[in-house]
């Protein structure tokens, strides 16, 4: 086999590989010999078929298999022998001349093809001694826990029928039909709908107009949908709701005691408070982790600058852009609504793609040098977590991961990244800073995107 480099520009490579006809012939003969005792041809006893007849009958199909095997295996081994790593799957180019292809399949010509690819860049890892991280932490106030417990108690509150007018805090059972420009709109009607007045579940102004109504009374409620309402065709538009109150109920006394906890399947109110505190700690912990990780990635991004594989960046950009345009379409908004243009947005998200690719390469190199690995057990836990996200379809999702090795491996990357981040945080200067809840939780969405 002959290997010749025909292009070496930056990270781009192109090599020409020639497998001589004699090598192809040797592989063909070996394969024919391997199957001679297995095939059956009318008029010949098993194992007694002349090789010339074997070649005439099976030669072309077996040579096609040999060519496919060479295409699948040779580029990988050749690139490895060159001490290079391909950023993405190499592109294979073969002759378009049918007569040349026929010669190869007949074993009369050399098999010649080119392999085009981009190499992963090489760069020197830098120390982390100068990286300083400020970890924001929130001291959980008991008031925060108690407020959350009260909200849970409100959701579990029972109601008793009452005579007379509805007051704020009462529950109203009603039928209603919503109309815009005199026409009923989809999703704007319901029967036997329960609404606790003052809960803020409905459009602003709706609940206030039901205060004072009694069972059996009708009311035409006039409201205006908020400008930022999720459904674009309703946002900012005035609407009327023809409401019929069917019953009114007053809330039972709310007591934070063990009886409440037992209604929720817990043994005591203290256990409920313990669970709530754990949930708050988890929420704050995730926000803290996100901000710490963002600082770390920002520091790494500032420390490294090297050429990136263009196809890898383009693939990452296309993934990001598809998500951006899908979200805009779902929200019914345009780039102008986001105070930008498509051109500016493309530039911004391409820079984000470059950042992600660069940091991915840096973290991969750091993790490899540090011996960071992802165990089969960790991958299995990740699969189980994915399965749990699709109640009712657990078996189908599990079968998908079981039958699709690439899907399982796609779960490896985020696990590996988090473990590398943990490794780095153990080597950099991290100091805690007490902040307010509002400060900790603000801008989390933007930071998640940038990371």
Provide an overview of this structure.
It is found in: Cytoplasm. Its main location: cytoplasm. With 451 residues, this protein is α+β, with helices and mostly antiparallel strands. 48% of the residues lie in helices and 20% in strands. It contains 14 helices and 11 strands. Strands 6, 7, 8, 9 and 10 form a 5-stranded antiparallel β-sheet that branches. A 4-stranded antiparallel β-sheet has the order 1-2-4-3. It has a two-stranded parallel ribbon with strand order 5-11. Helix 9 packs antiparallel against helix 10 (394-403).
Summarize the structure.
This protein is of the alpha+beta class and 451 residues long. It contains 14 helices and 11 strands. The protein has 3 domains: 117 residues, 2-Layer Sandwich (Alpha-Beta Plaits); 93 residues, Chitinase A, domain 3 (Roll); 180 residues, Trigger factor, domain 2, CATH 1.10.3120.
Mean pLDDT: 90
Helix content percent band: 40-55%
What are the secondary-structure elements, in order, as H or E?
Answer: EEHHEHEEHEEEEEHHHHHHHHEHH
pLDDT < 50 stretches: 445-449
Per DSSP E runs of 2 or more residues, the count of β-strands stands at: 11
Provide the CATH topology of the largest domain: Trigger factor, domain 2
Structural class: alpha+beta
Helices, by number, come to 14
What is the name of the CATH superfamily of the largest domain?
Answer: Trigger factor, C-terminal domain
* Number of discrete domains: 3
Per CATH, the class of the largest domain reads Mainly Alpha
Fraction of residues in β-strands: 15-25%
CATH architecture of the largest domain: Orthogonal Bundle
User: What does the radius of gyration come to?
Assistant: 33 Å
Main sheet record: 5 strands, antiparallel
Distance between the termini: 45 Å
Shape: elongated
Keywords: Cell cycle, Cell division, Chaperone, Cytoplasm, Isomerase, Rotamase
EC number: 5.2.1.8
Protein name: Trigger factor
Main location: cytoplasm
């Amino acid at each position: 086999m002959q290997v010749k480099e025909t292009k070496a520009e930056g990270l781009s490579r192109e090599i020409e590989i020639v497998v001589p006809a004699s090598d192809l012939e040797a592989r063909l003969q070996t394969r024919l010999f391997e199957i001679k005792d297995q095939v059956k041809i009318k008029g010949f006893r098993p194992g007694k078929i002349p090789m010339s007849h074997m070649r005439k009958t099976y030669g072309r199909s077996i040579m096609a298999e040999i060519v496919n095997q060479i295409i699948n295996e040779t580029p990988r081994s050749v690139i490895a022998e060159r001490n290079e790593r391909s950023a993405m799957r190499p592109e294979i180019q073969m002759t378009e001349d049918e007569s040349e292809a026929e010669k190869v399949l007949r074993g009369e010509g050399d098999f010649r093809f080119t392999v085009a690819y981009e190499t992963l860049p090489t760069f020197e890892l830098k120390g982390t001694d100068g990286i300083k991280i400020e970890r924001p932490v929130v001291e959980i106030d008991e008031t925060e826990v108690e407020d959350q417990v009260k909200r849970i108690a409100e959701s579990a509150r029972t109601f008793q029928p009452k005579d007379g007018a509805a007051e704020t805090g009462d529950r109203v059972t009603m039928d209603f039909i919503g109309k815009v420009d005199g026409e009923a709109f989809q999703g704007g009607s319901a029967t036997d709908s329960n609404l606790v007045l003052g809960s803020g579940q409905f459009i602003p102004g709706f609940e206030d107009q039901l205060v004072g109504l009694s069972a059996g009374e009708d009311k035409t409620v006039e409201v205006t949908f908020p400008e930022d309402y999720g459904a674009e065709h309703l946002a900012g538009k005035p609407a009327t709701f023809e409401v019929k109150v069917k019953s009114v109920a007053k809330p039972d006394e709310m007591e934070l005691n063990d009886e409440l906890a037992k209604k929720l399947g817990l043994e005591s109110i203290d256990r409920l408070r313990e669970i709530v505190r754990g949930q708050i700690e988890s929420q704050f912990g995730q926000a803290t982790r996100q901000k710490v990780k963002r600082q770390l990635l920002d520091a790494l991004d500032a420390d490294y600058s090297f050429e990136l594989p263009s196809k890898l960046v383009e693939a990452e950009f296309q993934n990001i852009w598809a998500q951006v345009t899908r979200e805009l379409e779902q929200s019914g908004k345009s780039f102008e609504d986001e105070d930008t243009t498509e051109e500016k947005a493309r530039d911004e998200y391409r820079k984000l793609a470059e950042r992600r690719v660069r940091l991915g390469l840096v973290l991969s190199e750091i993790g490899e040098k540090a011996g960071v690995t992802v165990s089969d057990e960790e991958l299995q836990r990740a699969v189980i977590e994915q399965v749990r996200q699709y109640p009712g379809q657990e078996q189908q999702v599990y079968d998908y991961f079981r039958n699709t090795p690439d899907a399982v491996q796609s779960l490896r990357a985020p696990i590996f990244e988090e473990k590398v981040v943990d490794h780095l945080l153990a080597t950099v200067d991290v100091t805690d800073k007490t902040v307010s809840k509002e400060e900790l939780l603000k801008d989390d969405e933007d930071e998640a995107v940038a990371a």
